[in-house]
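Internal ticket - ligand job 217, phosphoribosyl ATP:
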Amino acid sequence: MNQINQITLALSKGRIFEETLPLLAAAGITPAESPESSRKLIIGTNRADVRLIIVRASDVPTYVQHGAADLGIAGKDVLVEHGGEGLYQPVDLNIAKCRMMVATPVGFDYPAAVRRGARLRVATKYVDTARLHFASKGVHVDLIKLYGSMELAPLVGLADVIVDLVSTGGTLKANNLVAVEEIMPISSRLVVNQASMKLKHEAIQPIVDAFRSAAGK
Ligand code: PRT
Ligand code: MG
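stdout (structure tokens):
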């Protein structure tokens, strides 16, 4: 764990950072600089006892689990894949919202493919989520792990379908794909290291409370 008098919050750049700024403001925290323009990975704030670390979205739970950060903000997509071990998830912040979906090329008969019972080839970054989803439907799948640009896979014959996040639907549309099934709604959650929650309770609880009320909970 971090020093007892220092609070470290793990965030990712991009949409989560942008949507977290108002929550930080509600907790009286202002970053000293923007991670979009700075290359620094450790960013101070107006509070001497609070700092931010900038990590990949999918690495946030790992930093918090091991106590390298006391708090973090991570999408439910990332938390499901991580498993949530060692983490409290006290607040759904209702930010960075989207949906985890199954998508296919336009014209692909998904219900028929599922009915036929043949193995479905599924390309995704979210292999645990996809495995659970298709297992619950009793559909046999071959999972193909990708790290990005899932939309390409069915277009070049790597997979029949993809499992990916959809927000506006613009990416699917641009690639002649269509969402055929929702797996779960996604939003980002505040996560807290379990030991920090006990040992730094006095500093952490007000931040949790400010985030909760700013998120309208
Ligand atoms: O980008 P990087 O590889 O570093 O990591 P990342 O993609 O995990 O991070 P980032 O910052 O892109 O996303 C952080 C979190 O935002 C995710 O973990 C989700 O919880 C949440 N989020 C919300 C999204 C989206 N909406 C989203 N639309 N994450 C990704 N997308 C992608 C999606 O994968 C697809 O490629 O945007 C594309 C679809 O968008 P539309 O608007 O065209 O439908
Ligand atoms: Mg991304």
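Auto-summary: The longest strand covers residues 87-105. The CA atoms of residues 59 and 78 lie 8 Å apart.
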